[in-house]
Design a protein that fits this description.
The structure holds 2 protein chains of 2 kinds. Chain A is of the alpha+beta class. Chain A is 27% helix and 25% strand. In chain A, the strands form 7 sheets. Chain A has a 7-stranded mixed beta sheet. In chain A, α6 packs across α7 and α15 crosses α16. Chain A is globular, with a radius of gyration of 27 Å. Chain B is an alpha+beta fold. Helices cover 33% and strands 16% of the residues of chain B. A 5-stranded mixed beta sheet of chain B has the order 2-1-5-3-4, sandwiched between helices. The radius of gyration of chain B is 16 Å and the shape is globular. Classes of the chains: A alpha+beta, B alpha+beta. Chains A and B meet through α1 and α17 of A and α2, α3, α4 and α5 of B.
Chain lengths: 775, 165
């Protein structure tokens, strides 16, 4: 019986529940010293002087350096380059050089014997800056009169994707509907801040690094290039990570500074970020304004779609370059039949923390804009919201659907599924669970309820490759060395299930190591909902090859034909004669160097490395629905019910998939109602603690219903899996916006997320009288 | 000149005697001086609750207490919950209900819930609303809280049954 599809308890749980997880700050090295980063207190200005004298004299201080003390000209390059756009003039230096461009930008770094002394000394660094006007609004920043953050201007990129003749379609349309939607600046905010420990190896001159997650091999190679050393001399260790969400594990200035200090000082250096730092230093995301428009024929069918996006990228182009704005416009048409499309995006640099990816980058934003447009269109055309979507969703007979668009260097080919069927199933589930009744039912006096629905299209399983090693040792234990990384998503359990299924062993006998660059030097990391798809299929390939090799060896050992052998519980036996058997451990021993069944020229042992190559992504999809209650007086929005219906192809562990969907939905509700990085007119960040940056608590998140669909196995991989990491958040901004719009009876859009109480009060006043408040 | 203090405390039943700087937080002292790294720091300003430990049975944010304030107390941390190889009923319920993903906030939720359930008369039923209000004390970024609420309810239910009618 296969273990794929079972709700096996997580292999990660016992150590984490006992407090024996090993997170960044749990690692220490003998003789380590502590780094503290000194950050710009000014949003934009010229650095006159950085005076380290007092800091260097402070108790316990070992070193203090500013830009002049590190190798000149070092900037962090783009990891995900798209469309051959040259961003070299907008990259972030490892320490601010000449100019500071956001509050929180690293200006200097101080090293001391303990973290308290390092923090004391950091406060003694004097930074003298000639303040210049900050750029805080992307639209103004893109205009000719704006102060310039860079010699080449503030617009890092301006490009358009699309196909077909949108102009003719709009000219000939029966209806044209336009909408403007803004998404607030927010981000992943994992609960563990970033930590790095770099330990020099006196023997090799190399480095051991703890704390690089997500893309450890890429970061290792980049660090090696920046330090001018061989990449094999850097060992990035696998550790537990307290949440990733796109933010953790990209290459930041600290990822150079801490290892460089360790090499320069010849001793282990540790850096542990505090929360106030994290909120201004780690990637922000999401901030966009959309002007989206659709042309419809007289039957309510979309004939063309356009979007004009302003993307506020903060002060620099970081490792994602312009991948998020590209994904935004590439994915905007979603699961719909769109005969002609034009999506333009301008990437504007502003005096704020630079941006990168946050779970469902570009899709959370674009789905909100597109689905708000469809809600507005439904009202204008006099067609039910669901019916309008049903008419425009691509049908199963139209898949695979090749869109004449590329993203992340891959063709957009919607691979498999039945979008209308899932919309219908979600509707039936909402009815079964009483959503419609609750949305139209009575709340407290003056409160208004509303129902929101949104359809999303996701992308997952980005290649181009992933590698896994599967090894059986002489005790019969199975070890998987994967190129993914453990960020809390449960990938150890999922890969153990996949290996166990292919090998015919108990998954508890499978040990999975993720993200150790010495053990798996070919890994490409965990991001973009790729790990179950690409790491999973690499493990499946390697474990299947180990199984085949084990059967070949067992046939020799048992003097039987391979076709007559069966494998179960780690033992290979002759079919119908279970007494004639041999265990996987014995087979490994027999195939060891010098083993009796190893033939000349054959590789020793029971171990296989396999690479899974894939040219195209796979596209999961689904439906979000929300019932909300709005208090027009206070502006407070309560989410009463929430449903995520999601197609994942095949769930390796349904409990873990549901967990991903629920957790994603909670984050998405946070971004829709609570979370926002705001700035004052001088560019001072206003959200630097959890008092101002409000993560949702259990009081704001309702129980989340999940409809897990496995009707459309992905055709592009042997396991048939689609990624499940982002579907839970992708449609959440859209569904909450739709529900609030419904509750307030708005004719237009909600205009802007997050729907904070002041914004909701203004919307309620604007929409007053359209829908009577319930008694 | 550092302001150092010699203190004694018990952690999970074990006696410790150490010298600690006046400004050192209880969390840093537990983690870095005594090696109880299961207590985690998520915000260092008392909001997230990942650093929750029990001091003389009461849940506290160990980032907001100084180590010297724990002089003479009995501190309980997540490392003390399991009995040998056996997870506690609450820990087991967290695993059963998929109440953790990255696990960073988990020790804080476990200590919070443990203190709350220990204080209540286990014969009293715990409602979903009460469990949710309790869970709303701390932050989790991965799970959406549902599994945590379910795990607390399940543990309360099994302890109530064990307490008899």
């Amino acid at each position: 019986m296969t273990v794929i599809g079972t709700r096996m308890p997580r292999k990660e749980d016992p150590r984490l529940l006992r407090g024996r997880g090993r997170f960044g700050d749990d690692f220490s090295a003998a003789g380590q010293v502590w780094a503290r980063v000194v950050r710009s207190p000014i949003a934009h200005g010229r650095i006159r002087r950085v005076d380290l004298t007092q800091a260097r004299r402070a108790d316990g201080v070992i070193a203090a350096v500013a830009a002049g003390g590190v190798p000149a000209g070092l900037a962090i390059p783009v990891r995900l380059a798209v469309r051959d756009i040259d961003l070299s003039g907008y990259l972030q230096p490892v320490l601010a050089t000449g100019v500071v461009r956001y509050v929180g930008e690293p200006v200097a770094v101080v090293v001391a014997g303990d973290p308290y002394a390092a923090e004391d000394a950091a406060e003694l660094v004097e930074i003298d800056i000639d303040e210049e006007p900050a750029v805080l609004d992307a639209a103004a920043g893109a205009g000719p009169g704006s102060p310039r953050l860079f010699p080449a201007g503030n617009v890092a990129a301006d490009f358009t994707l699309g196909y077909g003749d949108t102009e003719t379609a709009f000219r000939q349309a029966a209806h044209v509907v336009e909408a403007e939607v803004e998404i607030g600046r927010h981000t992943g905010v994992p609960l563990e801040p970033r930590v790095l420990l770099a330990e020099p190896d006196p023997r090799t001159g190399g480095l051991s690094i703890f704390g690089m997650t997500k893309v450890p091999v890429f970061n290792r190679d980049l660090l090696a290039a920046m330090l001018g050393m061989d990449q094999a001399l850097i060992h990035v260790h696998a550790i537990d990570a307290g949440g990733g969400f796109g933010v953790r594990g990209e290459f930041y200035p600290e990822d150079f500074l801490v290892p460089w200090l360790a090499r320069t000082l010849g001793r282990p250096v540790k850096w542990a970020e505090d929360r106030a730092e994290h909120l201004v230093a780690a990637n922000h995301s999401r901030q966009q304004s959309h002007r989206v428009a659709a042309a419809f024929d007289s039957h309510g069918r979309i004939t063309a779609l356009t979007d004009d996006v302003l993307h506020d990228n903060g002060a620099y182009c970081r490792t994602h370059g312009v991948a998020v704005p590209e994904l935004t416009v590439a994915m905007l048409p979603g699961p719909y039949r769109v005969p002609a499309y034009r999506g333009r995006v301008r990437v504007v640099l502003t005096s704020k923390t630079p941006c990168g990816t946050y779970r469902a980058p570009g899709r959370y934003e674009g789905t909100t804009a597109r689905e708000q447009l469809l809600d507005v269109a439904a009202g204008r055309l006099g067609i039910d919201r669901i019916e309008l979507r049903r008419r425009n969703l691509l049908g199963p007979g139209e898949l695979p659907h090749r869109r004449s668009i590329t993203t992340l260097g891959t063709d957009v080919v919607l691979d498999a599924g039945d979008y209308p069927a899932l919309l219908q199933a979600a509707g039936a589930e909402m009815t079964r669970l009483g959503y419609h009744a609750q949305a139209s039912g009575g709340g407290a006096a003056g409160r208004r309820r509303g129902l929101g629905v949104a359809v999303y299209l996701e992308k997952s399983g980005l290649g181009p490759h992933e590698t896994a090693d599967v090894t059986v040792s002489e005790t019969g234990a199975v070890r998987v060395l994967s190129g993914g990384t453990s960020l809390g998503q449960g990938i150890e359990t999922v890969l153990a299930q996949i290996a166990a299924d292919a090998l015919g062993v108990d998954p508890q006998a499978v040990d999975v190591v993720n993200g150790d660059t010495d053990l798996q030097p070919c890994g490409t990391g965990s991001w973009a909902s790729r790990s179950t798809v690409v790491a999973g299929n690499a493990v499946h390939g390697a474990a299947s090859a180990v199984r085949a090799r084990a059967l070949q060896l067992a046939a020799r050992m048992l003097e039987a034909a391979e076709d007559d052998l069966v494998i179960a519980d780690g033992t290979i036996s002759v079919r119908g004669d279970p007494a004639v058997s041999v265990g996987l451990g014995e087979i490994a021993k027999a195939a060891a160097p010098g083993g009796p069944h190893l033939r000349p020229g054959e590789p020793a042992g029971l171990a296989v490395r396999r690479r899974f190559d894939v040219a195209h992504m796979t596209y999961p999809y689904g439906v979000h629905a929300a019932v909300v209650e709005v208090d027009p007086g206070t502006g407070r929005v309560r989410v009463l019910r929430y449903l995520v219906a999601s197609e994942v192809g095949r769930a390796i562990n349904p409990a873990l998939v549901e967990g991903q969907l629920r957790g994603g939905a909670a984050q998405g509700i946070g971004g829709a109602l609570l979370e926002e990085f705001s700035y004052d007119e001088a560019g001072q960040p206003q959200a630097i603690t959890f008092m101002e940056y409000q993560l949702p608590t259990a009081a704001e998140i309702p129980p989340i219903d999940v409809l897990l669909a496995q009707a459309a196995p992905a055709p592009g991989n042997p396991l048939g899996v689609m990624g499940a990491g982002e579907g839970g958040i992708s449609g959440a901004g859209a569904a909450v916006a739709s529900a609030v719009r419904d509750a307030l009876g708005l004719a237009g859009t909600v205009a802007r997320l997050p729907l904070t109480p002041p914004r909701v009060r203004r919307l309620a006043e604007a929409g007053a009288g359209r829908k009577p408040g319930l008694p | 000149m550092k302001d150092m203090h010699q203190i004694r405390l018990r952690v999970n039943g074990r006696e410790h005697e150490l010298t600690v700087e006046a400004r050192r937080t209880l969390a840093d002292m537990l983690r870095h001086d005594l090696g109880y790294t299961g207590t985690h720091l998520g915000c260092e300003h008392g909001i997230c609750g990942a650093c929750t430990v029990l001091v003389d049975g009461s849940p506290v944010r160990s980032c907001l207490l100084f180590g010297v304030q724990a002089d003479g107390t009995e501190v309980s941390t997540v490392e003390g919950l399991a009995a040998g190889d056996e997870l506690s009923d609450l820990q087991q319920a967290f695993s059963d209900h998929h109440a953790l993903q990255c696990g960073f906030c988990t020790p804080g939720f476990l200590m919070l819930a443990e203190a709350y359930l220990a204080e209540r008369d286990s014969a009293d039923g715990l409602t979903e609303a009460e469990a949710r209000e309790l869970v709303a004390s701390n932050l989790c970024r991965c799970t959406g809280y549902q599994g945590i609420v379910e795990a607390v309810l399940a543990t309360a239910g099994s302890r109530r049954r064990a307490a008899g009618p």
